[in-house]
């Protein structure tokens, strides 16, 4: 074998990347990680801003129905969170926003009432005619409830809905309703534990930001327990 064709790398010695090569790889890896974190930060921050923006909207245009998202009830008595939503729905009904209020929500094991039934009974006891309240007695989370309401509305030829929930809940519920083929807008309650303090407001925005991102990525619900339901 000629000296020109002989290997210049001694036999038995592995090829070791130079320090400059390793440094370059680490720099690129660091840039990728930093870029990913920046994108995630912008996405989270942007979603939080949208949650806050939509929470401030009171859209009281005329619709086919007003939807009250369920919350805890105790032997047929709505919790303070649920009552605030129901009072808002009753106020919207009184303004002529819609001729029908829909309550929604199932019940837990051992409960005597569904959330929907407790809401219907509360509204009827507070001046809303019983035949103007539709109780959709199913759903253990926001997505299931909205899917059930959409099915009930489509079956009745109804297509537009004003959603009465907590302010921070508005964007996610509106997004889900529109995904179910409904024309949906929001007019949330301005009373109740969800809006009592700055702390509860910040907690609500953070919670709904995470839940909305989860829904957009997976199309599953991610409901977290609301602030104290007294």
UniProtKB/TrEMBL annotation:
Domain DUF218: 64-204
One GO location term (cellular component): plasma membrane
Keywords recorded for this protein, A-Z: Membrane, Transmembrane, Transmembrane helix
Regions crossing the membrane: 28-52
Any Pfam family matching the protein: DUF218
InterPro entries per UniProt: Cell_Envelope_Assoc, DUF218, Rossmann-like_a/b/a_fold
Protein name from the UniProt record: YdcF family protein
Source species of the chain: Nocardia stercoris
């Amino acid at each position: 074998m000629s000296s020109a064709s002989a290997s210049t790398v001694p036999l038995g010695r592995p090829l070791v990347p130079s320090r400059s090569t390793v440094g370059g790889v680490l720099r690129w890896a660091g840039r990728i990680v930093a870029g990913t974190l920046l994108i995630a930060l912008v996405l989270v921050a942007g979603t939080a801003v949208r949650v806050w923006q939509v929470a401030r909207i009171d859209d009281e245009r005329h619709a086919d129905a007003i939807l009250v998202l369920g919350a805890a009830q105790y032997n047929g008595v709505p919790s303070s969170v649920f009552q605030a939503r129901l009072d808002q729905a009753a106020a919207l009904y009184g303004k002529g926003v819609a001729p029908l209020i829909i309550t929604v929500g199932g019940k837990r094991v051992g409960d005597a009432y569904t959330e929907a039934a407790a809401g219907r009974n509360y509204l009827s006891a507070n001046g809303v005619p019983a035949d103007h309240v539709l109780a959709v007695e199913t759903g253990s989370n926001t997505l299931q409830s909205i899917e059930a309401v959409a099915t009930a509305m489509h079956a009745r030829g109804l297509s537009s809905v004003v959603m009465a929930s907590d302010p921070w809940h508005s964007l996610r519920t509106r997004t889900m309703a529109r995904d179910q083929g409904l024309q949906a807008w929001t007019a949330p309650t301005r009373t109740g534990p969800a809006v009592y303090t700055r702390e509860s407001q910040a907690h609500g925005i953070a919670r709904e930001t995470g839940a909305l991102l989860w829904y957009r990525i997976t199309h599953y619900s991610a409901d977290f327990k609301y602030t104290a339901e007294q």
